[in-house]
Prior knowledge:
Layout: E1 13-20, E2 23-32, E3 35-42, E4 55-58, E5 67-74, E6 77-84, E7 92-98, E8 106-107, E9 114-115, E10 124-134, E11 140-148, E12 150-152, E13 157-159, E14 165-173, E15 179-181, E16 230-233, E17 238-242, E18 256-261, E19 267-275, E20 283-291, E21 294-303, E22 306-315, E23 318-326, E24 333-339, E25 343-350, E26 356-362, H1 363-373, E27 380-387, E28 391-394
Antiparallel strand pairs: 1-2, 2-3, 3-4, 5-6, 6-7, 7-8, 7-9, 10-11, 11-14, 12-13, 14-15, 16-17, 17-28, 18-27, 19-24, 19-28, 20-21, 20-27, 21-22, 22-23, 24-25, 25-26
Amino acid sequence: EWSEPAWVKQRGIDPSLLFEDGKVYFVSTGDCEGNRGIYLCEVNPFTGEMLTESVWISEGCGGRFPEAPHLYKIKDIYYLLLAEGGTEYGHMVTLQRSSSIYGPYESCPYNPILSHKDEESMDIVCTGHADIVEDPNGNWWLTALGVRTLSYDNGSIMLHNLGRETFLAPMNWREDGWPVVGNNGRFALAMEGDLPGRTEEVATGFTEYFNGKRWNLEFAHIRNPYMENYSLDSHHRSLHLKGTDIQLSTENGHPTFLGARQTAFEQSVKVTMIANGTEADMAAGLTAFYNNEHHYEIMVCRKSGKKCIAVRKQIYDFGAITKYQEIEEGKAINLKIEADKEYYRLSYQIGEQPYHLLDQGNHSSSVYRDHKKNDIYRYFLWNVCREHGGGVSVI
């Protein structure tokens, strides 16, 4: 259970705390009278009251957008860990230190201590926004955000569809008191280190039967949902969705949508549904959704009064239905999307028949534009979408 928030008047983002000898220091990224950088004050952690004025302590180490500050006191030296370069492909981790918490801070001569910004082909990109910790055995570790890539053209184009994830690397100290992270300032998908122990394996997939008081917390919505459009029927183990005129391609608004984030390159999702709408513009189904300009969906709809399974693709500002398949009325329908490193494959099943592949969509056409924009978002793969009038039951 969360307490009531303690508001701190020091403006900025990415706040962090340092506890030292009964005092609590509050550090954040801010902009005071045009002087952007890292600010520090002492606070009462229970009330948020500032006990000292905000003091500007660093402008970073030369990269743009110095942010995500963390302060540590290690062997009587204060270390200031930063993210610089922006959250995209130029992201990096830099470090400064001082004998006084208020500075002046000197920059590490080996900066950035972690970055993949200068590599032409990497399995992980956008590395930054880090934190460090010492384990009970005296070993040091650095954790940071990064993005696993889908490489095309022998790695010259590094696309991605999983968004930012958390990575861990061992950290060792040089004799001069500066650290070495991972493989000389690089992450790898597999690294060696003396772990203090192993946690239990955590399942990344799940099955939802809609038989409880609420659905799985893994699910998310597009913006704030209108909950009157979602009705859980635990007795019949189903979720009833009510459609609206807000489409997935609408830039704003609140479509009836229930989704879970894609967490692996190779992943699949299935849903059993009954669409009972009779309207000509009725549509309900399963989507691989990146944003309002990039998504593929397989859906139940109507064409010339007949119930159909269709695939629709939205790429940039162009959207079209690419495949239709007429089906019988009144039967439960299984929809499936399978993902790998190249395609999203959209299939359907009626009754006990085998799944039928209706169409597929290529990753590169969906995420290339956002690669150029340097976005770091992820796909939603397990999605039930509902557009227009009528209703749909997910069982």
